[in-house]
Recover the amino acids of this structure.
């Protein structure tokens, strides 16, 4: 992978837009190539489309794509950052929700929405992230949100990182659920419904007394998707409670 070329393409709004490296006069735009690759990944539920498949969708020859991007690895970087940029988070000087907690909730809601819209993104590594404007906008937003609430700099950075990791992990779980449902054509609740025999025949109440009490007291009286959303909100709010208590 050509890392520097990838950065040039990711940050193409800085200065002149890089021109195609070779070939005839451009018939497309880089943004069109990215959008088409994203749409193909959305339709298939995974970002495994080849350069030839993407070229076919665009109605051009495969070699034409290489006048815009060096290869599939660089295109994947552009796809991921394009999707992250869809969060359209407020930047410096833009109006913000009232209060830092509402600002964090906005980050969480928009990140979840993007992962639901593009389930394939959960298969992309966030450990070694794409250093593009979409990612940086999210990190800048979180740092700005927690930097003035009374935390020491290192604790503010840790708080921002903790929020980011928690939100991304849960967003990835949500995306994986949507991806599996798309690929199998079966909802998660239907999948569990097919396995009701497990609870009737194999589940041992004596070996799992805490789970049994939770079941009998109504703790599981919610469908799978609602339970996941409820757990996410509960965990996020408790994390924010902890940060708020530390500030206090």
């Amino acid at each position: 992978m050509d890392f520097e070329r990838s950065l040039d393409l990711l940050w193409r709004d800085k200065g002149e837009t890089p021109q195609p490296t070779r070939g005839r006069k451009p018939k497309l735009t880089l943004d069109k190539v990215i959008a088409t690759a994203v749409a193909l990944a959305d339709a298939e539920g995974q970002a495994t489309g080849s350069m030839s498949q993407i070229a076919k969708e665009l109605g051009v020859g495969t070699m034409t794509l290489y006048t815009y991007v060096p290869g599939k690895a660089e295109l994947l970087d552009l796809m991921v950052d394009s999707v992250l940029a869809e969060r359209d988070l407020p930047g410096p000087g833009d109006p913000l929700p009232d209060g830092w907690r509402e600002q964090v909730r906005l980050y969480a809601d928009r990140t979840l929405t993007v992962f639901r819209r593009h389930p394939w993104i959960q298969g992309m590594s966030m450990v070694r992230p794409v250093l593009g404007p979409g990612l940086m906008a999210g990190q800048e937003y979180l740092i700005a949100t927690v930097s003035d609430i009374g935390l020491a700099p290192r604790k503010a950075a840790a708080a921002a990182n903790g929020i980011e990791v928690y939100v991304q992990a849960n967003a990835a779980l949500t995306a994986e659920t949507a991806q599996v449902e798309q690929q199998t054509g079966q909802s998660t609740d239907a999948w569990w419904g097919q396995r009701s025999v497990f609870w009737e025949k194999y589940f041992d109440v004596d070996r799992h007394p805490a789970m049994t009490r939770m079941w009998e007291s109504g703790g599981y009286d919610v469908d799978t998707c609602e339970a996941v959303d409820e757990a996410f909100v509960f965990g996020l709010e408790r994390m924010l409670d902890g940060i708020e208590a530390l500030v206090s």
